Amino acid sequence: MNTQALKGTWEQIKGTLKEKYAKLTDDDLKLAEGKEEEMYGKLQNKLGVTREMLDKIIHEHHEIAMEKAKKETHKK
Fold first, then answer.
1. pTM metric for this prediction
2. What is the DSSP letter of 49?
3. 36: part of which helix (H) or strand (E)?
4. Where are the domains of the chain?
5. What is the pLDDT of residues 24-39, one digit of tens each?
6. Mean pLDDT of 44-56
7. In degrees rounded to 5, what are phi and psi of residue 17?
8. In the predicted model, what is the mean pLDDT of residues 47-72?
9. Alpha-carbon distance 33 to 49, whole Å?
10. Residue 61 burial (CB count, 10 A)
11. 3-state secondary structure string across the chain
């Protein structure tokens, strides 16, 4: 998934990932400029998944974050 697309919802994505995968820490989920591949490697190792599976997981949580943001916008 495109890192630029993630940046806008990364805080929400982190929250949903930590809810589902309790072993993930804030340090594991730190999205730093130029360090995206390093973060992906940490997450792959910690979750024991392939890069393709991790992309799918992150995409799913991105969609969840987008839906939550839409609901919040409609409440206002």
1. 0.79
2. -
3. helix 36-47
4. 3-75
5. 999 999 887 788 899 9
6. 96
7. -65, -40
8. 90
9. 23
10. 23
11. CCHHHHHCCHHHHHHHHHHHCCCCCCCCCCCCCCCHHHHHHHHHHHHCCCHHHHHHHHHHHHHHHHHHHHHHHHHC
